[in-house]
Amino acid sequence: MTSPVSNLLLSALHTETRNSLLKHATPVELPFGTVFFEAGKQPRYMYFLLSGLASIVVTVADGTSAEVSMAGPEAVIGGEHLLGSARIPSHCVMQLSGSALRIHFSQMQSEFAASGELRTLVLRLLQVQFAAVAQIAACNRLHSAEQRLARWLLTAQDKTQATSLKFTHEYLAQMIATQRSTVTVVASELQDRNYIEYTRGTIHILNRAGLETAACACYGVVRHLDSGVRSIVDTERGRGIPHDGSSSAESAGIS
Length: 255
Ligand SMILES: [Zn+2]
Fold this sequence. Notes:
The chain is of the alpha+beta class. It contains nine helices and nine strands. The chain has helices at 8-12, 15-22, 105-114, 116-142, 145-160, 169-175, 180-192, 208-214, 218-239; strands at residues 26-30, 35-37, 45-59, 65-71, 76-77, 90-104, 164-166, 196-199, 202-205. Strand 3 and strand 4 (65-71) form a beta hairpin. Helix 4 runs antiparallel to helix 9, helix 5 (145-160) crosses helix 7 and helix 6 packs across helix 7. The radius of gyration is 18 Å and the shape is globular. It binds zinc ion.
């Protein structure tokens, strides 16, 4: 099992707050396809990812789906459910196998209510997640499939630190809101330029710089947001958030 501190949110908490959470945590392995929460339903557990990759996906009335957000070992899966009782229409599923620390949702609610430090940090990370969701929504509407696929692969690599990503074309089509046949064409073009190699369901990123030239500017925006998460964590590791949650945005390196 990976060390708990490989989750960025956990690693940013004071030891006292982290230990209070970890008393209730259970380590779990998360195979591909694990569902964290379903559309319109409250999650049973919350997960601090330690490795792997999860996607928040919206399925519309005709059954087609598109990813609206990607989550790696930087946050808590299902954090948006801590904010209220709204019936959230998205679901969240594990896309690259990994592991996590799991806490019962009601226990997490109690910790969230009791700890200003935890509340402040979760809210900051959710703000970043919301900004990334907005960017991806615009990207899916405005940019080409090639740009979106390149952007998606780069972000997936950033979050997992893996050079090989096991995905089918069907899955990638859902992730970038297009048809499977379009992914096949676009992936083939990226492969012809030796940016990626696709073999037996695994994509190997061969030329990151090349892939960045193929991606839209949204990749840089999302990367900047993710680096903001790391700034938050680094700041809190250095200074700590006051336990009354009154730390300003400036103290977390964001504004
Ligand atoms: Zn874009």
